Amino acid sequence: MKITRRNFLYSTLTSLIFFNQRQVTLAHNTSSDNLISGNTKKEKDALIIVDVQNDFCPGGTLAVKNGDTIVKEVNKIQKLFRYVILTQDWHPKDHTSFSTSNPDRKVFTTKKMPYGEQVIWPPHCVIGTNGAKFHKDLKTDNANLIIRKGFRKNIDSYSGFFENDRITSTGLNGVLKSLKIERVFVVGLALDFCVQYTALDSVRLGYKTYVIKNATLPVDIGDSVEQTINNFEKNDVKYGKLDEFI
Fold first, then answer.
1. Does the active-site annotation cover 149?
2. What is the CB neighbour count within 10 angstroms for residue 51?
């Protein structure tokens, strides 16, 4: 074949693309990682890190007690996965679930909405605020995807998969299906709300689902933790330490 300037440039560009793809592949397979099952990260597993944001950590408007203490463990667990998804509460300031939008109701009481009972929350994770940002110590560079939820004024969203009407999708399921994911591992805040809803939707959608006990903490309202554990047992969501499942 005659070597022309066009052929030469095409060949060089193709080589560079292959090289860059190869570098990315190698970066994901560095031997310094503690990998699941030997030397390769499992291709059919995904880690969902739920709402590790400032407002859910000490000092935030809806703080989980000691919520920031799970960050180190979450970062450690991330190294075991090729596919990492972050979810992020992302509310308008006049969200219908906020106490400031319901001055006649006390925080943590409920009100009837078209999609069911809605807890009244202190304003939290308002779009563009520091409270909505991920905790400063959370490693986010490993994330393949960030799912923002709760940005519609008139409906809350606990699960990473669906709004609270259980119909409106966030798109996460489509991503996991395209990656041929079979097992989903869930960590983050808070165990008895957004972690629980994400895990229950995950198993309902057909994924083998695991909640990592030492990488999540609850809000703990009334018997919310007991109900959560019961729901896990009834719906075959596994709840324990990571090394029990791999």
1. yes
2. 30
